[in-house]
Amino acid sequence: MKLGVIGVGNAGSKIVDKMVEFESLTNRKLCRHVMVINTARTDLTKPDHIPEDRRILIGDTHQKAKGHGVGGDVDVGAEVAKNDMDEIRRAFDDVDIHEVDAILVCASLGGGTGSGAGPVVINELQKMYDEPVYGLGVLPGKYEGGRPALNAARSLQSFVNNTDNFIAFDNDAWRSKDQTVGEGYEGMNRELATRIVTLLGAGEYDEPTIAENAMDSSDIIRTLDTDGISSIGYASTSVDNSDGFMKRFREDHEIEDSSNSAAKINGLVRRAVNSRLTLPCEPSSADRALIVLSGPPSELSRKGLESAREWIENEVDTVEVLAGDDPRENANALSAVVLLSNVTQTPRIEAIQEQAVAAQEKIAEQEAVREEEIADLITDKDGKIDPVI
Ligand SMILES: Nc1nc2c(ncn2[C@@H]2O[C@H](COP(=O)(O)OP(=O)(O)OP(=O)(O)O)[C@@H](O)[C@H]2O)c(=O)[nH]1
C-alpha cells in the first residue's frame, strides 16, 4: 500500500519517525508523504527522518500554547488546530493524492495536542480526500493517572467516529513493570513501527513481483473497512538467507523443506495471534482478519499460508480472513503480521472509560471545594461579598 502519514503531537511524530526509519532499513516503500504537526517547537526538532519542511508548528501565536505545547489540554489542542487550519490545509496541498491509497494519522490520546488536534486534522482530511483515513492511536497507561485517561476517553470517540479504522496501541500492555513513564518509549515505538510498516507496506516493491499469493493493497483496505478498532499481532523468526552451503542444502531437500516451511508458517501465525497484541483483546471478537507473511521468497509456502488462514477461520472464529505474501528478496527474517479488525472485547478501553469517569467526578468535586473556598474568601460572615478594596 502507498500511504500518506501524518504525526500529530509528540508521540505521534516520534512514531512516524520510527516508521520511516524502519521502512528505509528494510527497503520498503510505504510512506510516500510524511508530515508532523505539533504545538511544541522543541518536540518538532526530535525526529531524525522527517524533512525540515514537513514539520508544521501550529499555535505559536495562540495565547496559551505560544509554541510550548498545550500542557495536556485537549480543548486548547483542538482550538489551536482549528485556528491554524489554513496553514495545515496548505501543507496538505503538497500531498499528491493520486500517489497514495490511504492516509494514516498517528497520535497519542493521553496528551493535549495529539488528542485535541488529531481529530480536527482527521475531519479536514475526510473533507478533502476520498481515500480512507486511518488513525493510529496510543492509549495512556493506567499508571499515568486520571487526566490522560480522561483525555483518551474523550478523544477516542472522535478518532473512532471519524476514521475508517482506528488501530490502537496500549502503553499499559507494552511497558515493563520496572519502567517509569517515559522509559521504554523508544523500544515501544520501534515495535509498533515494525508491525504497522510490515502490515501496510505489503505489496509495495520496486520491481514487479511474480509471487502467486502476493498481498494486494485492496485486501488490506477491505479488512480495515469496518469503522471499528483494530489490533495487530506479530511474530518473527530469523532465517538463513545466505547464498552459502545451507541454502544449497535446503534447495536439494526441497520436499522435506516445503512441509517444514508450511509447519513453520502455521506456527508463526499462531504465535502472532497469541502474542502481545498492540491492543490486548479477545481475537474472536474481530469481524475480519488479515495475515501478511513477509520474508525471502524461498521461505514462503502457499500450503502454510492456507493452513494458517484456515486455523484463524476455525480457531479464532473470524468470519472473513484474507491472507497474502510479501516477498522480500534480502530479508533475513520470516515475519507474520495478523490484523484483527473491529475487535470489541477490549478490556483496556473499558478500563480507560471507567478511569475517566472517576477522574471527571474527582475534578468536579475539587472544583466544588475550590468554589466554596473562593466564596468563603470573598464573602463576610453574613454571606455578603467583601469588596476587594
Ligand atoms: N507509546 C508512546 N507513548 C508516548 C510517547 N511519548 C509520549 N507518550 C504518551 O503520550 C501521552 C502524552 O502525549 P504526547 O504525545 O507526549 O503529548 P502531545 O499530544 O504532544 O500534547 P501536549 O504535550 O499536551 O502538547 C502520554 O500518555 C504518554 O505516556 C512515545 O514516544 N511512545
Automatic annotation (TrEMBL):
CDD domains given in the database record = CetZ_tubulin-like
Q: Which SUPFAM superfamilies match?
A: Tubulin nucleotide-binding domain-like
Tell me the keywords, alphabetical order.
Cell cycle, Cell division, Cell shape, Cytoplasm, GTP-binding, Nucleotide-binding
According to the entry, every stretch annotated as the Tubulin/FtsZ GTPase domain falls at 2-201
- Locations listed in the record: Cytoplasm
Domain of life, source organism = Archaea
Which GO MF terms does the UniProt record name?
GTP binding; GTPase activity
Residues the record lists as binding GTP = G112, T113, G114, E144, N171, N189
GO cellular component terms, alphabetically, are: cell division site; cytoplasm; microtubule
| Any Pfam family | Tubulin
Gene Ontology terms describing biological process: cell division; microtubule-based process; regulation of cell shape
What HAMAP family does this protein's entry cite?
Answer: CetZ (MF_01946)
Q: What family is this?
A: Belongs to the CetZ family.
Its biological function?
Answer: Involved in cell shape control.
Its protein name is Tubulin-like protein CetZ
Q: What is this protein's gene name?
A: cetZ
